[in-house]
Amino acid sequence: MDKTKPLTSVRSSFPLVPIRSLGPRHRDRIASHLLALDESDRYLRFGYAASDEQISRYADGLNFERDDIYGIFNRKLALIAMAHLAVSDDLAQANTAEFGVSVLKAARGRGYGARLFDRAVMHARNEGRDTLFIHALSENTAMLKIARQAGATVERNGSESDAYLKLPEATLATRLTEMVEDQMAEFDYGIKQQAKHFQELLS
Known about the structure:
203 residues
């Protein structure tokens, strides 16, 4: 049985936000971001109230060659929102990517979760994935709302829910858009780095 529906873009709902692809050199920033989540946010992100030790192990175990990690930085280069687009090692699930996201409380209400979701969808399409999967607690209404707005089919099983989003094939437009957004995010990050360095010199 096909559990998916056609993709509906939510991109136009929010302003353009520089979203940077993260690599191994950002591992400490990723850990700091996740450790800054309070107990309830950790519970929603991981499905359990992850301890500092468990979060550190998660950050240390990120596979940047297999998966894709995206982040939004503020002017001080603090990672205020991030997404993990994971690909299973199971060949039977090779065309499916799993999405997870976290946004610091101070950065809520700006559409960052939806923007990261949109960015992950575009990359998954360009990589040839045909399905985006989200496993979330049923009480994580914000995440499930984003999935539903994009056209995902959401199946609830008690305290947990699974969302399946059918992805269309990549187009020239999606490939060019991803390239432009990557370049813009790199430029934005470089400007913030220079500004931070300048402020440190002044202080």
